[in-house]
Structure formats: structure tokens, C-alpha cells
Amino acid sequence: MNLASQNNICIQCGLCCNGTLFNWANIEPNEVIDELFPTEIIKIDKREKSVFSLPCQFLNNCVCTIYTSESPKRPLICAKFKCKLLQKYEANQITYSESITLIKKTKELAQKNDKLINGTFPELKELSTSKKIKALKNKLEVANNQAEFRKQFGKILLSSFTFEHWRKKNFVVNQKK
Ligand code: SF4
Ligand code: SF4
Questions:
Q1: Residue 159 needs a FRET pair 20 to 30 A away by CA distance; which of 11, 66, 112, 136 works?
Q2: Which pLDDT tens digit goes with each residue over 24-60?
Q3: Which of 31, 33, 35, 64 has most ligand 2 atoms within 8 Å of CB, for mutation?
Q4: 140 CB contacts (<8 Å, ≥6 apart)?
Q5: pTM of this prediction exceeds 0.85
Q6: Which residue segment(s) compose the domain that 56 sits in?
Q7: Ligand 1 atom at minimum distance from 89 CA
Q8: 2 is a domain residue
Q9: Residue 166 falls within a domain, yes or no?
Q10: Rounded-to-integer distance, Cα 122 and Cα 116, Å
């Protein structure tokens, strides 16, 4: 989440912190972590990189609660990260109101997809949108009969893959949070 400019679209969004776009955020190598950011939430992932899990515990109503303009309390990635939408907004390729409409639409699509998954797989209810989709894909991967799984849960898979495409198209850039 980037909070640098006035009229910032990020404080209406929070999608890169709340687990809709990503499961994890990276801590940079040799990064000095502020004491307000508890080091026990930092884990080492399969790639041997330091990460912390999303949704982030410091997000409150789309606002990062450990950020102030005077102090770099957030991990570096949080200050640096700019999604595709934010980059387009800062380059005046999309207006404020179009950006907010796109953010709202994304939240609606995520909620709709969450509801579909929760209805069929209640054990995934507590997971964020991104983790739910990952868990659904894992279920497909380990299914004894993948063709049958696709047939049985086609509607949910289609909705999840469509949402993934939407998320990539509108938000995800190569720089991975
Ligand atoms: S997803 Fe983009 S617009 Fe939304 S909070 Fe993150 S950087 Fe800002
Ligand atoms: S520390 Fe702040 S900016 Fe970083 S993921 Fe958490 S809520 Fe978002």
C-alpha cells in the first residue's frame, strides 16, 4: 500500500494488504525491521525468503496503522509497492473516480467468489480470498479424478479463475509483493 500522494486511492482500497491480491509480502534481504513490526510474524518461505502473511494485522479499514509520514515503520516493500492500477493512476492514465470504481468492482467480485467457495468448502471460510483460491487449486491438484472435480465444481473454478485473471489484469505487476 502506497500512501505518498494526496487524494490517494490506496486508502479506499487495501487489496494488496488484505489478502485479496497476495498471500505473503516479502521482507527485503538485510532489511532493518522497525520495533513496532513484530519479528515473530516473519517466516522463511520455500524460496528461503523472509515473508509475512497477509492479510496484514496492521490493516484497519484500508489504512495501514503502523504508518506515519515521519517514520518508516512499515516494511520496505509496503512503501515501495505500486500495483498496476496505482501506476496507471499516477501516470494520469485513469481518473480517481474510475480507479475507485475499479477497486469497488474488484471487492464485489472477490466477495462473490468468496461466497461461492465458502458455500461448498466451509473449511476454507476463514481464509482470505487469495488463500481460498490457492486452497481450491490445491484441492484440484490432489483430486483423484481431476476431470470429475472440474465437472462437479466447474462453477466455482470458473469464477475463481476469472477472478484471478481480473486481479492480474488490473493489479499485479512483475514486482511481487
Ligand atoms: S492494491 Fe494498489 S491501489 Fe490498492 S492499496 Fe495496494 S497499491 Fe494501493
Ligand atoms: S504493514 Fe501496512 S502497508 Fe504493509 S502490508 Fe501491513 S497494512 Fe499493508
A1: 11
A2: 999 988 888 877 777 788 888 888 889 999 999 999 9
A3: 64
A4: 146, 149, 150, 153, 157
A5: yes
A6: 10-170
A7: 3
A8: no
A9: yes
A10: 10
